[in-house]
Amino acid sequence: MTSKYEKTKGTQIGISNAPVTEDDFKAAGFPTAGVTFLEAECATKEISYTGGQKSDIDVTTLCSTEQEQTNGLAAPAEMSISRNWVGDEAAQLALQTAYENDELRALKVVFPSGNGFYVLVEVRQSSWSAATSQVVGATYSLRVKGKPKRIVASGS
Predict the structure, then answer these.
(1) I need a surface site. Which of 4, 34, 87, 141 has the fewest CB within 10 A?
(2) Which domain of life does the UniProt lineage start with (predicted)?
(3) Predicted TM-score (pTM) of this structure
(4) CA distances from residue 155 to 6, 22, 108 in whole angstroms, order as listed
(5) How many whole angstroms separate alpha carbon 81 and alpha carbon 84?
């Protein structure tokens, strides 16, 4: 049996150049012509997504032989972006502006296969670090608003 995987080389990452409302993101035709994505992949080293953990609802009864739970509400999903710090890069400026002004931004992540996701996020934390014999790094912690929208490759 052959392993299945997707390489990361060629992954495209975009950050909306302006705020995006929850209503606009939820609209069937998202992204509309008014949404422009700034290229972010050439300074991004890693992007990660973690779905929100669901709370437990106790459904244990007197006839239960052990504790029983069912899923409750999910916490918001989280993302992080680790990048090279580039002071004049439009995508980084958009992330920093979103952090400073509590704006929602849309992210677009497209893997080499053409599959990917649109995600509406708010920037929760912005950090940078510098050390000897390295480049300046930046990390952004993001809270996902709502559910990501799948991007399906043409022909899939």
Answers:
(1) 4
(2) Bacteria
(3) 0.89
(4) 17, 29, 20
(5) 10
